[in-house]
Here is the input.
Amino acid sequence: MSFFVEFMRNPMTVGAVQASGSALAEVATATVPATGSPVVVELGPGTGAFTAPVQRRLAVSGGRHIAIELNPRFATHLATRYPAVDVVTANAAALREVLAQRGVDQVDVVISGLPWAAFDQKLRHDVLSEVVAVMHPAGVFTTFAYVHARWSPPAQRLLRSLQSRFEEVVVSRTVWRNLPPALVYFCRRPITVTAEQRYESVVAASGSAGGQASR
Here is the structure.
């Protein structure tokens, strides 16, 4: 399975010319408990760069591992290579639906390999809302960014989105051994928003827009 070939076929959904390296994978998956029976979800696992270390840690704890991959060729490859992983061909924005079909209502760890820079605002919002909705209060969400693009507008929008949905967002040290160098965001204590709060926010935003328009 060639990551580069899949990138050339559909660069907007693959988002990178090569898979993440093992050094980045070890940092990104360090939050997976080696004890208990955690439920771990991977979003956009690709060819399985993060899948292997997750499986190694779960081999000790015996937890559950669900991987959601949009690319059907990646998904088939992943399911063949890691038969212990429940691989689902679906959009990450359908996370709650996928988990509900499997009788899962809360997740301990969500690890993202999604190409955030290729997402528009709505898709980024929808995916992060799904993540927050299924997270255990003590759960952890991890995702990564490339150092060279950290200050770009898409990366800054992602960081602001994370900070608005989690009380704590910790940035790892730079993983220089990845190509290109990357860093990991560790997000804890998800902020849940009720329907009432969401409605009030929309009303407030509408009122503000109306006020600006009248001037």
Q: What stands out?
A: Strands lie at 39-43, 64-69, 86-89, 107-112, 135-146, 166-171, 182-190.
